[in-house]
Amino acid sequence: MKPLKIGITGVRGVVGEAFTPELAVGFAQAFGTYLDGERIVVCRDTRPSGPMVHAAVCSGLLAAGCEVIDLGICPTPSLQLATKQFKAAGGIAITAGHNPSKWNALKFVRSDGLYLNATQGEELLDIFHQGEFLKAGWNEIKTTVDTADAIGLHIEALQSAFDVETIRSRKLKVAVDCCNGSCALLVPQWLELLGCEVLAVNDDPSAPFPHSPEPTPNTMAQLRAVVKAGRADVGFAHDADGERLGIVTDLGEPLPEELTLPLAATIRLEHRVGPVVTNISTSSRIDHVARRFGVEVIRTPVGQPFISEAMIEHDAVLGGEGSGGIAVPEIHATHDSAAAIGLILERLARQHESISQLAKQLPDVTMLKYNVEVEPNRLYSVLQTFRMLVESERLEHDLTDGIKVLFGDGWVHVRASNTESMIRIIVEAQEEGRAEDLINWARDRVRK
To answer: Which pLDDT tens digit goes with each residue over 307-343?
Structure first.
């Protein structure tokens, strides 16, 4: 099986198997055709296949008559801001984000800096499958690819959104693990500008990923050690392209990725009250925080495009997902780990309350996750079978994205992954024993 995942987050796969240079050229030509051969910005992360895929993407865009601006290695949120700044028709981020090194992906961004929505993604896919691309004549192809600095623009936007002087006055000590990804070029620089003493590890973009680029407690052992040894006020862990943020407290405790959003929401709502947007899989902790401040939680299907559009529609003060992605609308309505850092450090600087004390204020619930690898052609038949079993048992359920089964003392969510060929099972309950019962209940039915 050579899985290729095409969906709301773009197209991704294992390089040398399903994800090939021919595929990258074809999708770049399709995107260039979709945007009528206009200006497009391109960036990549640090994984080994990046230069190859970058060359293929630029070739496809040039063949379609596009003007290409190369941002080099930079976080995806930096590209998203640059898309608007450079008045580009769109952008392509070459990154598989939290996936391991062998994966790569193309993420497609529209002119407002947000990802293509579901309808726009389908239109692009139709062009790709039809294979009828714009073809610039020999004398119409652009002969150069311009370069630009998106990281500097990103830092300027961050400075304008947060109280830099207050953060500087606290002289916080911050540990950071950039996973040798694109954040190595942004986050240490951002922290130094904020007057922090920076304890950086894995901040070499020329080195391989030292561990999985998914910022979860399982990948934070080194960061925990740095926080403890350096007596840091907080530690931050990043994925490969600057969207997800993991947190280690001042006590050296790695927080579950599900806590990043409710922590950020608590901080945000103390100063600005309004709706918070998240997806249907996110922990009920966010509902607890929202009730405390008397605001609404808007739930969407899983995926950044859904979060972004709901934030704009409802004038939300914050958005995010349980994966650790946070969207601060003053920067842009899309996940940005550097913006999340600014939000958290501003709170630590203004009030003498540690990150561990903040985390203790959140309700104690148990969330368990389990992935079932499934052949791509069986994903939706497996989901349909599970849905039929749920309906036959007359259980209350929500079909916003996959099947979310609602019990009086917890819930189960079963859905197809947006990024890999697997079924994701997420359960939550007040008691750990009940959560284990629910995960076993769901696993038994997914396997039938």
So the answer is: 999 999 999 999 999 999 999 999 999 999 999 999 9
- What CATH class has 153-360? alpha beta
Q: For 335, phi and psi rounded to 5 degrees?
A: -60, 135
Q: What is the dihedral of CA 36, 69, 109, 328, to 10 degrees?
A: -140
Question: Which positions ≥6 away from 284 have C-beta within 8 Å?
Answer: 363, 365, 411, 428
Answering whether pTM is above 0.85, one says yes
CATH architecture of 366-446: 2-Layer Sandwich (3.30)
Tell me the H-state helices in 294-374: 304-314, 337-350, 355-360
CATH of 4-148, one of 3.40.120.10, 3.10.580.10, 3.90.190.20, 3.40.50.1100: 3.40.120.10
Domains 153-360 and 366-446 in one fold: no
Q: What is the CA radius of gyration of the chain?
A: 22
| pLDDT tens, residue by residue, 247-283 | 999 999 999 999 999 999 999 999 999 999 999 999 9
DSSP 378: G
Residues 120, 125: Cα–Cα separation, whole Å: 9
Domains of the chain by residue range: 4-148, 153-360, 366-446
Alpha helical stretches, state H, 86-243: 118-130, 150-161, 164-170, 187-193, 221-230
